[in-house]
Amino acid sequence: MKATAKAHTNIALIKYWGKRNEELILPTNSSLSITLDGFYTTTSVAFDEDLSEDIFVLNNEVITGEAYRRVSRFLHLIRETAGKQNLYARVNSVNEVPTAAGFASSASGFAALAAAGTRALGLDLTHEDLSRITRQGSGSACRSIYGGFVEWNMGKREDGTDSQAIQIQTENHWDVRVAAVELNSKMKKISSRAGMKRTVETSAFYSGWLDSIPNDLKEMKAGIATKDFEKVGAVAEANCLKMHATTLGATPPFTYWHDSTMRVMQTVQEMRKKGIPAYFTIDAGPNVKVLYLPENEEQVEKILKDIPDVQNVTLSKIGPGVTYL
């Protein structure tokens, strides 16, 4: 009753921002992402009849508090699915992602946990079934089950049985690169969950955000299908800015950006003026991801590393889905 799985983070080109059901993690809109090979989590899950509670070790540190409770609740969901509610597990996870800093650590973390946990209990699940379970640990994690270009269909049903991710193109479809620009690896002050909740409940701009999603998705999928980098980049950048604008319309207003975030954004826009096609996107954190093409990699990396306050730049290709080790 042991298994090990590896899952990669993903970066949303069309953002997931808001839930219509907090308990089942059902989103208010569909989203679309690419899986990255540069950031990942490797997790081993071992169920043991001698254990009286779950044990969670992350990067060689025993975890307690809310992070532990989230993992234990998710393991209970897997136990219920397998009909083995009385078994507890030791979870050992190594995270090659800055935690809670806007680099999607929960996406790779819960995808790896779901894959290893279900495999350890002998569940033989399709990727869609695994995606539905993973969604209930962390919404964006359901997209990390797959490699390449992935759409999370929000679904319509109240029980969440039609809310799962599907792969729309494999990692071999198109060689697009992503530079992850690390400005601040500290934990953010407002979690994604808390930020979403405040925005959905109070933002004056939220309805406009939801109204814009169907067209953004249509344009994004068309751009990916035809490998139109300018279209994909422009839609991703605009969608990111709209998402972050909703936080400024919340009560009280908040933002995940730092002044260094703005510097990177402006530098990327300057790159385009100089003929280097590059576009930014930002999740719930200060750090920036920059989309570019492989022929411009050397220039893009050098320009980004020269920006003040940039601590690190990690270059990624489009990555694979979950693998078992």
TrEMBL record:
InterPro entries: GHMP_kinase_C_sf, Mev_decarb, Mev_diP_decarb, MVD-like_N, Mvd1_C, Ribosomal_Su5_D2-typ_SF, Ribsml_uS5_D2-typ_fold_subgr. Its EC number is 4.1.1.33. SUPFAM superfamilies: GHMP Kinase, C-terminal domain, Ribosomal protein S5 domain 2-like. The keyword Lipid metabolism applies. Residues 184-306 form the Mvd1 C-terminal domain. It is an enzyme of class 4 (lyase). This is diphosphomevalonate decarboxylase. It comes from Oceanobacillus caeni.
